[in-house]
Specification:
There is one protein chain. By secondary structure, this protein is an all-alpha fold. It contains three helices and no strands. The longest helix has 21 residues. It is elongated and about 40 Å long. 17% of the residues are buried.
């Protein structure tokens, strides 16, 4: 599987997850953590299926073939 999530993109996804998690804990609205958890998982595995579907690659370390 090719990676298509770059460093800055992955950090932004992880930051959004942490912020949403903190917001969910403080307000009790856990529904927001579900979509951001998906972002967090895609940041950890460095592959996003939507990016793959639309042929987007923010990872500068890989080249398109």
């Amino acid at each position: 599987m090719k990676t298509n999530v770059g460093g800055f993109d992955g950090m932004l996804r992880s930051l959004l997850f942490v912020l949403a998690l903190c917001f969910g804990v403080m307000t009790g609205s856990w529904w927001l953590t579900i979509p951001t958890a998906i972002l967090f998982v895609t940041a950890m595995i460095k592959w996003c299926p939507l990016y793959d579907m639309f042929d987007i690659n923010t990872n500068k370390e890989t080249t398109k073939s």
